[in-house]
Specification:
CATH topology of the largest domain: Aminopeptidase
CATH architecture of the largest domain: 3-Layer(aba) Sandwich
Largest sheet: 12 strands, mixed
Number of helices: 8
Structural class: alpha+beta
Strand order of the largest sheet: 1-2-3-4-5-12-6-11-10-9-8-7
Helix content: 25-40%
Radius of gyration: 19 Å
GO molecular function, one term: acyltransferase activity
Distance between the termini: 30 Å
Organism: Kribbella deserti
Strand content: 25-35%
InterPro entries: Acyl_CoA_acyltransferase (IPR016181), DUF4081 (IPR025289), GNAT_dom (IPR000182), UCP21603_acetyltransf (IPR016794)
Pfam families: Acetyltransf_1, DUF4081
Order of helices and strands: EHHEEEHEHEEHHEEEHEHE
Keywords: Acyltransferase, Transferase
Shape: globular
Length: 274
């Protein structure tokens, strides 16, 4: 019984853990599919093993994300994390797991920059309930100079600090460019300016997750978000039939827009930001 760093030989067992709830676990599923559990190709993934069986996972990169972790597994992950030290900039996942993990590491890892304890995790698995806005479309690679500033603005507004760009200033820009290249960036661009945008930040097994939803500040309150999100859902469902997102409970306009589109809440997430 205990925690260890997983490797490629553990991929099948790790995927079986994720498959218990592929919708909730879409973010880590996407990362594991990309890395194949090779730490050289991505972040570490820790596994909690009990009686020789892999029971739970914890993605331990910039985002620390527990997966299918009960209280025993969380306590084991927290003890392991305290020995290793904090490398993440946020802890995120199902609220109960995040809150217990945080309570166990807070004395050594605190204080946080912010705690968001109530983030509805929302799902839609069919066509949008309202007419999509046809002006929202996939972003073309030549439009990176228009999209990138909007992505930086969204990130800074949402997270509270600018995105980490890396020593050469290209890391975040490269991430945005990759989303465009893979057809996972969507926007309404008018006269070279982004009015609305969103991306598919994770693609798992039959599930994808929308991230980075943003409306240009001067256009807010005009009813843009819901039809635009309906268009994103239509486009996203060409990638995976089930579409997810999570949102801060205090963001009532966004929640109302998502509900108009047809999203419903299935779980509560929480995030601890450093």
């Amino acid at each position: 019984m205990g925690v260890r760093v997983l490797g490629p030989r553990d991929l099948s067992a790790a995927r079986a853990v994720i498959a218990r709830d592929p919708v909730i676990n879409v973010f880590v599923d996407s990362l594991i599919q990309s890395s194949g559990l090779d730490p050289r190709r991505g972040a570490e993934v820790w596994g909690y093993v009990d009686r020789g069986e892999l029971q739970s996972l914890c993605h331990a990169g910039g985002n620390l994300v527990p997966v299918e972790a009960d209280d025993i597994a969380i306590r084991q992950f927290a003890a392991y994390a305290l020995r290793r030290g904090r490398n993440c900039f946020q802890i995120v996942g199902p609220a109960r797991a995040v809150q217990l993990f945080w309570s166990l590491v807070e004395r050594q890892w605190g204080p946080p920059r912010e705690i968001r304890p109530d983030q509805p995790f929302m799902v839609i698995d069919g066509p949008p309930a309202i007419e999509p806005d046809p002006r929202v479309r996939r972003v073309e690679p030549v439009e990176l100079p228009a999209l990138y500033p909007a992505c930086v603005a969204m990130y800074t507004e949402e997270v509270g600090v600018p995105p980490q760009t890396g020593p050469d200033g290209t890391f975040y820009r490269s991430r945005v460019a990759e989303l465009i290249r893979t057809g996972r960036a969507f926007a309404w661009i008018e006269d070279g300016q982004v009015v609305f945008k969103a991306e598919i930040g994770a693609v798992g097994t039959g599930v994808c997750q929308i991230q980075g939803v943003w409306v240009e500040p001067s256009r807010r309150g005009q009813g843009i978000a819901a039809p635009a999100m309906a268009a994103v859902v239509e486009l996203a469902r060409t990638i995976a039939p089930v579409v997810t997102l999570y949102v801060n409970a205090f963001n009532t306009p966004a929640r109302a827009a998502y509900e108009r589109v047809g999203f419903h809440t299935t779980q509560t997430f929480a995030t601890v930001l450093f």
